Request: fold
Amino acid sequence: MRHVPFPLRVAAGLAVTTAERVRGLPRQLVELPVTVASQALQVSMRVQQHVTELAIKGDDALSSLRRPEETPEWATFDEDEVDDLGRESTTAATQPGTAEPDPWAEEERALASDHTEGEFDSPVGAVAPGGFANYDDLTLPQVRARLRTLSLPQLEELLAYEREHANRPSFVGMLTRRIANVRQAEGSADGE
Reply:
């Protein structure tokens, strides 16, 4: 076979490639919308990433120029509320339909106070009822862990003791809720 010149071989290769592409064109036309959508989403995500990177760099640059506020003006806390006379608000949350304070709210308020975890102001040395020899030394979680073993009279006796001695809102709230749960369980057992 005679040697065919290089430009002619390239032209023949181009013709074969064009014919192959034309045969595959219907399949590519079907895939075209998916491909275009995918590429558009990729471009959109890249743009979003670049914009976010620019915003982060801008925040870093601006934060070095300006000192942040100690407490933002929009941040308000319950203990910051002041009534019309300039006194701090001390209203207790009440249960709907009653005048009694909500025991959950009392416990949450007590736990959020300045006491560190596990430390409560309780008198030392007193013997408490309900089978607790060292009740005044126990933390809230320790008492909570033992409540399920107590009967209703023991719980009521323990609540009365707590109210007479330390009257800690977190303990009073926990005992009040436990007594209500025991009474409700006894009431539903009687109704069956």
